[in-house]
Amino acid sequence: MSYGVSSSRSCQPTPSPKCGRPRLSDRAALTGILLVLKTGIFWEYLSQQLGCGSGMTCWRRLRDWQQADVWQRLHQAMLHRMREYDQIHWERASVDSASVPSPMAAHLPAAIPPIAANSAASTFMR
Predict the structure, then answer these.
(1) Model pLDDT for residues 6-52, shown as the tens digit of each residue
(2) Buried/exposed 36-66: b ≥16 CB within 10 Å, e otherwise
(3) Matching Pfam families, A to Z (predicted)?
(4) Which residue among 33, 44, 61, 78 is least crowded, i.e. fewest CB within 10 A of its CB?
(5) What phi and psi values does residue 123 have, to the nearest 5 degrees?
């Protein structure tokens, strides 16, 4: 079952004929990405012993997936699947500026200039 994201389309580049390390699986890379994003650790602190590959590998895969709109397609597929089974609870939904631009964005107030220079005596001892 495809859920709106074609399984025949892949975000993976064609394998290189060179010898070297095998490509880290998408599942392992996703696990590493989610671990970094959830815990807030630095990419370079992601341990390869967890089976997620290196932090740099996961960061590159995240970058590649962002450029290929994988997250947008995944979000649309999840929404489609949830609508299909009536699983979106609209009474609990909210909209914020991260998903919908503000209609008042063009009418931001100007910065208020300072009234006068600070004339208080310095308390710094020389």
Answers:
(1) 444 555 555 556 778 889 999 999 999 999 999 999 999 998 899 89
(2) beeeeeebeebeeeeebbebebbbebbeebe
(3) DUF4096 (PF13340)
(4) 44
(5) -100, 10
